[in-house]
Design brief:
The protein is mainly alpha-helical and 135 residues long. It is built from nine helices and no strands.
């Protein structure tokens, strides 16, 4: 299945409708758009646009599989921080996957999140995660 950036963009806008960024009050969808635009490859951009829809919206892996194919759905699921999983384990799981598309999306996600909320805690957590993902 061919990945389609504009289909993913439309899907992300609809899925995140009404959501706001916690620290800025901006429409949430601006975040996945910025992450997507920081990447070089269309596949990574599609995954970036969708990276928060399972975690933050009423979207399932099955729905993503139907709309975008099994590979996109699998990669978005890997980027989903599941309830009950520590942040440290979540980042280690992404790093250990060896999936460079997912790793690149997560690196850009972290960098974009820092711009919204550059607290000392966020910076410390982000530096650790970036180092882990860059091994």
């Amino acid at each position: 299945m061919r990945v389609d950036y504009f289909k993913a963009l439309k899907f992300a806008i609809e899925a995140h409708k009404g959501q706001l960024r916690k620290h800025t009050g901006a429409p949430f969808v601006i975040h996945p758009i910025r992450v997507a635009e920081s990447l070089d490859y269309e596949y990574q951009r599609v995954v970036a646009l969708l990276h928060d829809v399972i975690e933050d919206c009423d979207v399932s892996q099955v729905e993503l599989n139907s709309e975008f194919g099994a590979e996109v759905a699998k990669d978005v699921l890997l980027l989903t921080h599941a309830k009950g999983v520590t942040y440290k384990q979540y980042i280690k799981d992404i790093a250990d996957s060896g999936n460079m598309d997912v790793i690149q999306v997560k690196i850009r996600d972290i960098l974009d999140n820092i711009t919204d909320h550059p607290s000392e805690h966020m910076l410390k957590k982000s530096v650790w995660a970036l180092e882990e993902l860059s091994k």
